[in-house]
Amino acid sequence: MLTDKILFFSLNILLLSGTGYYIINQGASGLSLPVNTLLWGVMALLVLFISFRVAPGKYFVTTVALLLFISGIAVLAIPLIYAEPAGLPRAGWRVAALFAGAVFYFAWLQVRLSHALRQGLWLVLLLAVAAQAALALVQLFAPDWAWVPLRGHRVYGVFQQPNVLASFMATGLALALMLFLLPGFTLRQARYEHCRQAFLGALLLVLPALLVWIQSRVGWLGGALVALLFLWRFGALFPARCKQAALLLVAGGLIGVVGMLWAGPEGGLGYLSHDGSNQARWTMLRDTLRMIAEKPLLGWGYGGFEYQFLHFRINQTPPTVVTEIANHPHNEMLLWWVEGGLVALLGMGLIIVGGLRLVCRAWHQDRQAFIDGRRCAGEPTALCFVLLPMALHTQLEYPFYLSALHFMVFLMVLATLERQVSGVMGRRPLPVSMGVMLRTLLPVASAGVVVLMVFALLGGLTLTRAERAGLMDITAVRAMPGLSAWVHQDRKGFDEQVHALLLFNQTQDQALLSGYAQWANGYLKKHIDRNVYASLYLILKHQGKNTQAERLRREALAFFPDDPRFM
C-alpha cells in the first residue's frame, strides 16, 4: 500500500509540471511541444516511483477492463507489420504512446486511494484547471500581462489551441460538479468546508462563462452534456445542491453570453462563425468514409493518412476542393480504421468495450451504493461524466496529440474509476515471479523514458532556437546528440534542407539543390507542404526537368489552388 506522502508527492509533481508552464516553441504536436515531453517524463517518474513502492507479490490486474485495453492495444500494433516505410515512424510513435499509456494506467491501478486521498486528487486537478482558467482570463482581458504569448484573438491557456483548453475546462466543470453535488466529499471541519464550497462555487460560475468566451464547439458540447447529466442523475437525490449548482451554471452562462453580445463583432469576445469549419469537417468525414469503403480490410497503411487522404481527394471525380492540409480525420476511431482497416477497428472495438463495461459497472454499483448509504455513492458514475469531455473531444479532434496533460488526466481518472468498480473480487494478484519481473522491468523502462524525454526536450529547444534565428546557422542542430536527432529526425532533416537552400543563395553550389530535390521527393511522400512543393518545382525547372516540374506543379495546384506560385 502506498503511503499518504507518496500520493501527495505525485500530486505535487502533476500540479507543478502540468499547469501554467510554458516553454517557447514553434507549435505542432507530440514531442515537438516541450510541455508534452515534460509531462511524458512526469508520467515515467510516477511509474518509477510507484514500482519502487509495490512489493513483487502485491501487483494485481483487474478482470473488468484492463485486459481488454491491453488486448486492444496489442491488436492495434499488428498493422505496423505491413505498414509502408514512409509512414512507419509516425505510426510507430503513436503505438508506442499507447503502450506507454497502458503502463502508466497499470501502475496507477496499483495505487490504493482512500476516499480522502481521492478527494485530494480531484482538488489538485481542479487547481490545475483553475490555473488554466486564470491564464485564459488574463489572455482575454489583460493580454499584455499574460505569461503565455497570445497568437490571434482566441485564448488557449498554455495549450496553444482553443479547443484543447475548452475540453480541459469542461473536464474541470465536471470535477467541480462532482465535488459540489456529492455529500460524501463534505469536509468535517466547517471552516474548511466553507472554503471548499466557495472555491467550487467560484468555478461553477467562472467556467461556464469562460467556455462561452473560448468559443469552442467541443467545449460547449462537453460542458453542456456534463451539466445536464449531473443534474439529471443527482437532481432527485440531492435537490438542494442541484438547484444551487444550476443557478451558478446558468448565471455563469448568462455572464458569458452577455459579455459576448456586449463586445460586439469587433471585440475579442465577439461571436465567431463556424460555418466554414462545419463544412470542412463534413467533407472530411465524407471522404474518410469513402476511403474506408474503398479499402475496408487492410486500410491505406499506418502513418500515411496525410498523404493518402489528400491524394484521394484530388483524384476523385470530380475532385474535392482542398481547403486545408489535414494529417488527422478529426476522429480518433476513423484514423485507426482508415489506416489499419478491420484489424485496427477490432483493436479500437476492444478498447471501447472495456470502457463501456466500466460505465455499466459504475452505474449498477452506484445504484446499490445509494441503497446501502455508502459514503462514496455516486462517485463512480460521476467519474464517467468527468471522462466524457475528453472522450468526446477525441471523436472530433486529436487532443491527446496536442496535450499530454489531457492524456495523463484521462488515464488517472479512468484507472481510479476501474479500481473503484472492480472491487476486491474483481482484482487478481499476479504471480510473484511476474511481480519480480515487473519490479525490474518497470523501473528500467521508466528510467529509459525519462532519459529519452530529456534528450527530446533538449533537441526540441535546439531546433526551436535555430528556427527562430532563421536557420542561417545550424551548427548546434548538426551537433545534436544522436538520441535527440533520432526523436526529431523529420524536423531536423527539414531544417537542414531549408538551410541548404539558404546556403545555395550564397554559394550557388548545385550539389545543394540536388540534395534538396532528393530529400523533397521523399518528404512529399509523407507530407503535403506548399513551400517544399514550390522549392522543388523551381529546382526541377532550373535543372531542365520540365516534364517532372509540370507534373509537380499540377499536383501542387490541386492542393493549393489559391497559391499564385503554381498558377
TrEMBL record:
It is a multi-pass membrane protein. One of its GO terms (cellular component) is membrane. The chain crosses the membrane at residues 7-24, 30-52, 59-79, 91-109, 121-142, 162-185, 197-214, 220-238, 245-263, 334-356, 398-417, 438-463. The keyword RNA-binding does not apply. It is found in: Membrane. It comes from the Bacteria. Keywords: Membrane, Transmembrane, Transmembrane helix. The keyword Glycosyltransferase does not apply. Residues 383-564 form the Virulence factor membrane-bound polymerase C-terminal domain. Residues 203-347 form the O-antigen ligase-related domain. Residues 155-180 form the Protein glycosylation ligase domain. This is Polymerase.
